[in-house]
């Protein structure tokens, strides 16, 4: 069985937003919502400034608070580790939105469905997600954690990864190589 994961290497990210645009096209995301954002975070004091580009999206927790609180099991994990929502059993209580520590979920204003990043599982079925496919600098790495020859396993073995809010023990499957180059922090 495959187990999908992604890495965002902030050292390679140039903040171009191509990933975000590709995501919007793939899933018809409403203008004022997002499944994926790359936010610019300016650190330090002039002239020693440093710009970090940080990805914000669902991090595919293995122990997902959104799944735990869902009263109808509409939020669920697939065998491949993808967190999905079944709109036919969702009752719109929004518990999952409140429970997500990564602020990854929203209500689609057109359909009323709960939406978030799915690694494009519903449109691509485990193939390379839209965001990864368009990244001009290969800052996004995706693959099967159970395949030792996958890009994501090879990258993880040669880079130091940080998991978002690791102290919450949600066991994310989106990891980050934090920005260690350029400028200086305070
Ligand atoms: S990041 Fe939020 S929406 Fe995604 S699996 Fe974790 S708790 Fe659920
Ligand atoms: S809004 Fe839907 S998916 Fe979210 S907790 Fe309620 S029933 Fe589950
Ligand atoms: S497409 Fe790649 S380089 Fe551009 S913002 Fe997204 S992750 Fe960064």
UniProtKB/TrEMBL annotation:
InterPro entries: 4Fe4S_Fe-S-bd, 4Fe4S_Fe_S_CS, ET_IronSulfur_Cluster-Binding. Residues 4-33, 47-80, 81-110 form the 4Fe-4S ferredoxin-type domain. Keywords: 4Fe-4S, Iron, Iron-sulfur, Metal-binding. GO terms for molecular function: 4 iron, 4 sulfur cluster binding; metal ion binding. It holds the Pfam family Fer4_11. PANTHER family: PROTEIN NRFC, PROTEIN NRFC HOMOLOG. This is 4Fe-4S dicluster domain-containing protein. It comes from Campylobacter corcagiensis.
């Amino acid at each position: 069985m495959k187990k999908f994961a992604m890495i965002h290497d902030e050292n390679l990210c140039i903040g171009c937003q191509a990933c975000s645009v590709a995501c919007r096209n793939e899933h018809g995301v409403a203008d004022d919502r997002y499944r994926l954002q790359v936010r610019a975070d300016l650190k330090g004091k002039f002239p020693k400034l440093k710009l970090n580009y940080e990805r914000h999206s669902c991090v595919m927790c293995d122990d997902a608070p959104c799944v735990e609180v869902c009263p109808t099991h509409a939020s669920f994990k697939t065998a491949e580790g993808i967190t999905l929502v079944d709109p036919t059993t969702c009752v719109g209580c929004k518990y999952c939105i409140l429970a997500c520590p990564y602020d990854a979920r929203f209500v689609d204003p057109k359909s009323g469905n709960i939406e978030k990043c799915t690694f494009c599982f519903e449109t691509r079925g485990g193939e390379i997600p839209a965001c990864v496919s368009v990244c001009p600098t290969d800052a996004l790495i995706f693959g099967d954690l159970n395949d030792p020859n996958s890009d994501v396993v090879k990258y993880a073995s040669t880079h130091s990864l940080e998991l978002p809010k690791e102290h919450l023990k949600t066991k994310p499957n989106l990891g980050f190589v934090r920005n260690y180059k350029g400028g200086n922090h305070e």
